[in-house]
Amino acid sequence: MLRTLFSPRLLGLHALTIGVVIAFILLGRWQLGVFQESGKPVVATDPAPVSVTELAPLGAQMRGDAVGRRVTAEGVYDASRQLLVADRRPDVDAPGGNASRDQGYWVLTPLRLDDGSLVPVVRGWTADAADPAVKDVPEGRATVQGRLRPQQGSDQVQRRAEGLPAGQVQTVSTGELVNLWQGERVRNGYVVAEPPSAGLTQVVSKPPMVGGELTWRNLAYAANWWIFAGFAVFMWFHFVRDAVRGDRDRDKSPEMVLEG
To answer: What is the DSSP string of 43-100?
Structure first.
């Protein structure tokens, strides 16, 4: 049997089968990768900026297609109502957490629009609550450009057991801001200013994202390549089995002639 398996005619078959199987497996992995990538969120069309009043409503939820949109807002900053959002990194998608790991603050200052409503604006990020840039609030009428973000829920952060100092919050929650800024009409969500106020670090906010559409066809292609690999092994097995049987029969035939 070993003589047959290692004969020149079968060695070529072994090498061909190994190459085919490896190629088919790799092709299947490639198609599977294409399928997995197709399901990832992708950047949607980034429309031109619009007024924040069009996308950040009063007393209503923000539309899903408004998240990440570029907006503009004109008004006057109310420095007396400024807050620090504790335990934050300079990225809106980075999770908030324990202060020992996430040292930093978003500087949240409300902008009073011409209609009297307030728009929460993240003017930037700082690692130190005592940073002089925190108190350097632009005076007079200001025009803010940035990206609109939805309000944050309490489940997005790990609450500090000891609580927070006065003037600090852990989320940008519209409901919480309404309670803190009593008597004010607060628009839903918040604006991440681009560029930030002088001296503060830019908080990164992604443009609108849409969920990718899974290309099931590529998953089917992957399965086909792996089936072909299995079929190649199946055919190799049958060719080898037939070769072994043929050589075994030829080895027995002289004995049968002598006995006859």
So the answer is: E---PPPEEHHHHS-BSSPPPGGGTT-EEEEEEEE-GGG-EEEES--SBTTSPP--TT
CA 17 to chain centre: 40
Q: Which two tokens stand for residue 252?
A: 């027995």
Q: Name 79's Cβ contacts closer than 8 Å, sequence gap at least 6.
A: 109, 135, 137
- As a three-state string, the secondary structure of 179-195 is HHCCCCCEECCEEEECC
More confident residue, 44 or 89: 89
What local confidence, expressed as pLDDT, does residue 141 receive? 96
pTM of the model: 0.64
- CA nearest neighbour of 156 among 95, 223, 247, 78: 95
Task: Please tell me the distance from the alpha carbon of residue 20 to that of residue 16, in angstroms, as a whole number.
Answer: 6
Report residue 26 as tokens.
């790799």
| Spatial distance between the Cα atoms of 205 and 71, rounded to a whole number of angstroms | 13
- pLDDT score at 246: 75
Q: What is the mean pLDDT of residues 241-251?
A: 75
Confidence of residue 177 (pLDDT cuts 50, 70, 90): very high
Give dist(CA 43, CA 36) in Å, integer.
17
CA–CA distance, 26 with 24 (Å, rounded to integer): 5
